[in-house]
Amino acid sequence: MSSPCGFSPALLREVLPAIDREAAATDQDGAYPAAGVAALHRIGLLAAPLHGLGTAPEGADGLALALRLIGRASLPLGRLYEGHVNALRLILRHGTRDQIALGAADARDGHLFAIWNTDDARAPVRLDGEVLSGRKVLCSGAGFVRRALITAEEERGAGPVLLLLPLRPGEGADLSGWQPLGMRASASGAVDFTGMPAPPQRRIGAPGAYARQPDFTAGGWRFAAVQCGGIEAVLEALRSHHRRTGRGSNPHQAARLGQAAIAAEGARLWVQAAARRAESGAPDAVAYTNLARTAVERAALDVLELAQRSIGLAGFMRGHPLERIARDLSTYLRQPAPDAALTEAGSHVLDTAAEAGDLWA
Ligand SMILES: Cc1cc2nc3c(=O)[nH]c(=O)nc-3n(C[C@H](O)[C@H](O)[C@H](O)COP(=O)(O)OP(=O)(O)OC[C@H]3O[C@@H](n4cnc5c(N)ncnc54)[C@H](O)[C@@H]3O)c2cc1C
């Protein structure tokens, strides 16, 4: 059945086994899940944000499900698709009619969009007139993605400008520094923009559009949804291990499996509630998302520990499903400013007039 936003969960479930196999096969530095991106294009997911998936309130549940399912099969692909949705959302929100039409045509043609914000501290990206200089790091899809939204500072600027750049394959990309524990196939390398032109028609919205609140922080529910898919993959690896080895009925093992199931379901409920709150523009969406991402991170760390203690050393051997997923998930859990996210939510709780029990009613 298709959701109102051009997303069919049934079609996505059909392509997940191939995405899962590709995730295992591309667990290498410099790799990129090209077949997975093509599959998402085939089933309409690259264009679905144009129909409201992650870009309109009625697309909240659908995107939460899509991100969880993709993340369950491949955290690197989930990361890439999350960036695609975010980039299209920014273009739809802040772009001119022509920019939106061009972006929509590209998405329909199968282009994956990226959003790259993190600067190389030694050479932050700057825009002088119409020419760029500097490098971004942690650019998922570096060298592969052909449409990138990037932030750039201008002299005496009123916040960073957002630029939509067409890129040639490999242009400016350097994957040599991307040698992480996990998420290897997200190709999150550096990109050097020095000398690249950025004429006015490449600017999306007013300066500061990228980090405009509440969208910027509340959008954190999307990475939490992908992480939630990773938690579900760990739970599946644990359950399969018990079924295979016949150890699951041991009371200690059964208790740990039960605790892992509680954590996974808690994460799913947080993600779903945060998605609805953020996408409907609720005034407390920032605080709620900050709680949700913190709860999902905790759930992930708990489920990883439970699975590793339950499976034991076998789960640390290359080739065991848990081994790669645990590396991918623990790497992808590292998101910006987790301490600030929790303390912001704590301040909200402290300062809100409603009774504590009615805070989110
Ligand atoms: C797989 C992957 C893909 C990514 N892809 C992209 C991408 O495509 N585009 C993009 O823009 N970014 C991307 N990123 C980067 C991401 O957006 C974050 O920048 C990054 O994950 C932050 O992680 P961190 O642990 O370094 O965070 P940090 O915020 O540095 O947190 C590390 C620790 O320091 C603490 N801390 C933070 N600030 C301070 C402070 N001022 N003083 C004291 N302590 C502090 C935190 O609370 C935490 O304990 C990606 C990240 C990953 C893992």
Automatic annotation (TrEMBL):
Q: Which UniProt keywords apply?
A: FAD, Flavoprotein, Oxidoreductase
Its cofactor is:
FAD
Q: Which InterPro entries match?
A: Acyl-CoA_dehydrogenase, Acyl-CoA_Oxase/DH_mid-dom_sf, AcylCo_DH-like_C, AcylCo_DH/oxidase_C, AcylCoA_DH/ox_N_sf, AcylCoA_DH/oxidase_NM_dom_sf
Keyword Oxidoreductase applies:
yes
Start and end residues of each Acyl-CoA dehydrogenase/oxidase C-terminal domain: 220-330
Reply yes or no: does the keyword Flavoprotein apply.
yes
- Reading the lineage from the top rank, the first entry is Bacteria
Similarity annotation: Belongs to the acyl-CoA dehydrogenase family.
UniProt cross-references to PANTHER family, sorted A to Z = DEHYDROGENASE, PUTATIVE-RELATED (PTHR48083:SF37), MEDIUM-CHAIN SPECIFIC ACYL-COA DEHYDROGENASE, MITOCHONDRIAL-RELATED (PTHR48083)
Name this polypeptide is given: Acyl-CoA dehydrogenase
Origin species, per record, is Plastoroseomonas hellenica
